[in-house]
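TASK: fixed-backbone design
INPUT:
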């Protein structure tokens, strides 16, 4: 796995390798442009997670164009949808909480 991740990192030219104490090697990619590159390269080959990958690209696009509280809430809804696709159970802040916070501050009209 270490060799595969090393070659993948060299090929794509993004991210960095992290060697954990338990012997696991991780390829960490955290900046938005690099995430886009990874998603665009892998989407054609994905079978089970293609929907999530396309949704993440949409989230990245819309999050960079947030100009209002309503836009922010819409992105939060997309993130909730992403979490549902991945069976995310530990998230504390969801779109409903974002909506209530924005509405309580007068930033959204109910």
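OUTPUT:
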């Amino acid at each position: 796995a270490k060799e595969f991740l090393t070659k993948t990192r060299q090929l794509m030219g993004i991210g960095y390798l992290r060697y954990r104490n338990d012997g696991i090697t991780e390829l960490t990619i955290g900046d938005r442009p690099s995430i886009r590159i990874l998603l665009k390269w892998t989407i054609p080959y994905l079978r089970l997670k293609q929907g999530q990958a396309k949704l993440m690209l949409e989230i990245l696009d819309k999050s960079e164009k947030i100009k209002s509280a309503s836009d922010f809430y819409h992105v939060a809804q997309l993130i909730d949808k992403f979490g549902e696709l991945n069976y995310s159970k530990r998230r504390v802040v969801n779109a409903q909480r974002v909506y209530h916070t924005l509405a309580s501050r007068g930033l959204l009209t109910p």
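COMMENT: The two ends are 51 Å apart (CA to CA).
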